[in-house]
Amino acid sequence: MGTTSKKKNMEIDFQDNMILLTRKYLKRKIMCPETKFRHHIKERQHVLDLLKRTVECGESNSALLIGPRGSGKTTLVNSVLKELSTIKNFKDNAMIVNLHGLVHTDDRLALKDATRQMQLENVVGDKVFGTFAENLSFLLDCLKAGDKKRSKPCIFILDEFDLFCGHQNQTLLYNLFDVAQSAQSPICVLGITCRLDVIELLEKRVKSRFSHRQIFLFPGENSAPEQALNGFEERVELFKYLLRLPDNENINRVEEQYDDCMIDSQFGTVWNQFIDDLVSNVTMINILKKMYSLDVNERCFRNFLAVAVSTLDEDHQRLEINDFIEASKMFTQDDKVLLLEGLSVLEISLIIAMKHETEIFDGEPINFETILNRYNKFANQNSSIQSVQRPVIMKAFEHIKNLELLTPVGGTNTRTEKEYQYYKFLLTPEQILDALKNYPSLPTEVKQWATNSLQ
Predict the structure, then answer these.
(1) Are 194 and 74 in contact (CB under 8 A)?
(2) Do 248 and 211 share a structural domain?
(3) CA angle centred on 196, ends 194 and 200, rounded to 5°
(4) To the nearest 10°, the Cα dihedral for 65, 71, 77, 78?
(5) Distances from the Cα of 26 to the Cαs of 48, 258, 263, 280, 402, in angstroms?
(6) Does residue 319 sit within a domain?
(7) Which of 194, 216, 238 delimits the end of a domain?
């Protein structure tokens, strides 16, 4: 009896451990996209050749990789760098400097991090640079030192490139492009941005030193002719790929990549069969279709899967349809409804006043005075509603306007006092009522006022 019980406990512990490892492995797989790139074959080859020529031939280049968010720009660059890292000459000689516009908010920070990534602190020794100009001068001297044959090729990857254009005098961009144009040492400057008008953001002196090489990525393109799948079929295949565990053929490769996620092959086979069955479920397909119709962005889809996978634990060892239904709600819910749920009670009350005013006058424009009168009428009839001073209500109204839930009618007239400026209300009654269902601790009087018709 004791042996049987002990064996059963070991099986439970094994199963629990496998589920935790599975969750860890899948979350890594989903949230840290592999460097295998499936689209934009021509554009990828262009970037690959550009970086390869910098290292192998000593060329100096500059280029911009442009495309909307989620089109795969960063994944493309990472896949190129991953492939080039397998080439010994590139791995041994090339220096990669990654700078990000959201992190390096001015040239001083960017310069400091570039110096660190290029491992130039050792060259500096005990010398202390007091000014940005001295730091820049030192970095440029290091870049320009030597010649094409003796200098180490350096590749600068500037993510959110458009944000660097906002730096004072665009000093960093000017000097990087100047070094690339002078071709004193092999350097490649590759900017990544979602701004189609990014060239117009460059100052004239910077623009004159840029090569004007632009590589565009358009979402949803299959550049490889052999990829005959349509968009949704490919999304289903991606769903299966991201949720499957490594089979016997790939288990060794995966263990090398995730050495702390060694999953039993027999467990993996059972899990993969379960995922295949899940894809054949009509409800699951409908969820995927709805997600795809709302947003073809792969990043959003990966976030959706990550939320579902996060539900796995010792007590919940299978991904159920309901897990995906609940996860999809986070990504299919109206953005304006989510926005309303974060407003104050006063702001929600003004929204309700706008709803009633719009319904009574059949969609006619509204202004602050009409909304104030309707709100005051409601507040005076309900003793539990705390009275609020006019400036506070005005500030709440301005906040609603700044959230773009109101739009000026006929433009903003500077001669009209702001209390009497007319606006079009952009919310539907359904959106307001949906938001109120999930609004925490909303006074009963306010909720009743929202559902009462035309008052």
Answers:
(1) no
(2) no
(3) 120
(4) 160
(5) 29, 11, 11, 20, 40
(6) yes
(7) 216
Contacts 24+ apart (CB under 8 A), 357-365: 357/425, 358/425, 359/429, 359/453, 359/454, 360/454, 365/409, 365/422, 365/423, 365/424
- Same domain flag for 421 and 406: yes
List, for residues 24-43, the tens digit of each pLDDT value. 899 888 887 665 666 788 99
What band does 385 get if pLDDT is binned at 50, 70 and 90? confident
Q: Cβ(288)–Cβ(236) under 8 Å?
A: yes
Are 101 and 228 contacting, i.e. CB atoms less than 8 angstroms apart? no
**CB-side exposure of 406: number of CA atoms within 13 Å?**
26
In one-letter notation, the amino acid at residue 85 is S
Q: Cα–chain-centroid distance for residue 444?
A: 38
Distance CA 263, CA 305 (A): 20
DSSP bridge partners of 156: 97, 189
Clarify whether residues 99 and 239 are in a common domain.
no
Q: Convert the pLDDT of each residue in 309-329 to its tens digit.
A: 999 888 888 888 999 988 888
Non-local (6+) Cβ contacts of 226 within 8 A are none
Question: How confident is the model at residue 220, as a pLDDT?
Answer: 57
Residues 314 and 396 in one domain: no
Q: For residues 291 and 87, give the distance between their C-alpha atoms in angstroms, rounded to a whole number.
A: 40
CATH number of the domain to which 374 belongs: 1.10.10.10
Q: Which of 332, 350, 376 is the last residue of a domain?
A: 332
One domain for residues 208 and 60: yes
Helix (H/G/I), strand (E/B), else coil: 407 = strand
In the predicted model, is pLDDT for residue 126 greater than 80? Answer: no
Would residue 222 count as lying in a domain?
no
Together in a domain, 175 and 281: no
Whether residue 76 is contained in a domain is answered as: yes
Q: How many domains does the chain have?
A: 3
Per DSSP, 185 falls in state: S
Residue 245 lies in a domain: yes
Domain that holds residue 351: 337-451
pTM listed for this prediction: 0.59
47, 71, 193, 216, 303 from 220: Cα distances, Å: 19, 8, 18, 13, 18
> Measuring CA to CA, how many Å separate 444 from each of 387, 447, 448?
16, 5, 6
Average pLDDT of span 144-164: 78
